Description:
Mean pLDDT: 82
Radius of gyration: 37 Å
Structural class: alpha+beta
Number of strands: 18
Number of helices: 11
Order of helices and strands: HHEEHHEEEEEHEEEHEEHEEEHEHEHEH
Low-confidence stretches: none
Largest sheet: 7 strands, mixed
Strand order of the largest sheet: 1-2-17-16-18-14-15
Distance between the termini: 25 Å
CATH topology of the largest domain: Outer membrane lipoprotein wza fold like
CATH superfamily of the largest domain: Outer membrane lipoprotein wza domain like
Number of domains: 3
Strand content: 15-25%
Amino acid sequence: MVGRNFCLLNALILALSSLLSSCSPLSKEGPSASDIKQNASYKVGSETSPSVYEYVLVDLDSKAIKVFGKSQYGSLYGTFGSRRSTPSNIILGVGDTVQVTIFESQAGGLFVPDDAGARPGNFVTLPPQQIDANGTLNIPYAGSTKFAGRTIADVQQDIAKRLANRAIEPQVLITMQSQRSSQVSVVGDVRSPARIDINPAGDRIVDVIARTGGPSFPGYETYVTLERRQRKSTVNFEDIIADARENIYVHPNDTVYVYREPARFLAFGAVNSVFVEKSNLVEFNQRYLTLAEGLGRVGGINDSRGDAKKVFLYRFVDRRKLLEANFDLRKFPIERETIPVIFQIDFSDPAGYFAAQNFYLSNRDILYVDNSGTYDASKFLSFVTQSSQTITSVNNSVVSTKAAKDAVKNW
């Protein structure tokens, strides 16, 4: 019986060894390091290999840190430029209410008669009027005058010129009573969304957000999108506060959309995820989070499972950024704006920890730590041990059953 058990155990070990070498039946939580390296469409710092999956593999060295290390979103200043970040001249428009005052140099003119009596000045103020749907107002003795689409100074000069032959050295002053055309919409996660009149002195992004009560959520997880004439850009609220250039002036008819998006990353593989309450989804809870800090959030690399040489970070990177870094992207469709990139870092190298401290995670990054070869061997031996124990248990059951049958027969 012992000989039969020994032969059966050997046969099982040989069968499992064959399966392990051919199809690797042991469970894994992700691709192996060799799979990642061999299947990259384009490699930085290593030899190229035939394309299987469309992604780029980048060794996390000093060059990669310089190009990709800083987590970046859009830029209001970069999108709209310095010339468009100056206060916009208030342009009159349909729906605006204005008041027109006409001065003459002396009494006896068109608007100030000789018998005007005691007056504080030689002028007349017309009742407030709203610019009509045609963008015009009717000014006595000047006729229908175009207001919409023009600055206040331009309209003042035009009316004075029209009255020059009838009034005594006329001067015109126009004051804005209420605005309807020079407004900006602030919507989303602010305390009091509203459509706001733009101050003639100019309002910046933070000004109009403050006038709606400010963001409803912490600045590090609040994003601001500015849309202007079919162009838009998004930036984190804290970046606007930190960089004065990002706090650009708003223009009439701009839309400012404020929304909350907590930054998160996913962690898979040989990490101590028990430190994050058994969840693979980890929130930044701050504006910037380095790769080292992120790995710390999940308890670091599991000592018994992980391979410090096989730590990978998955991210979609803007195509233009890769082209600026002289990456060969001919294998990727030209219409693809973002390219899948995998960053590889070796934590067995002491310098790897310094690199991880200077490489920032981006929202929706995926962190993956591969299992070590030692751990795979350990899993196999454990599987074999469990199988041998099962065989022994089954054999003991068979022996017990036979003994019971013999006892019943003899009785």
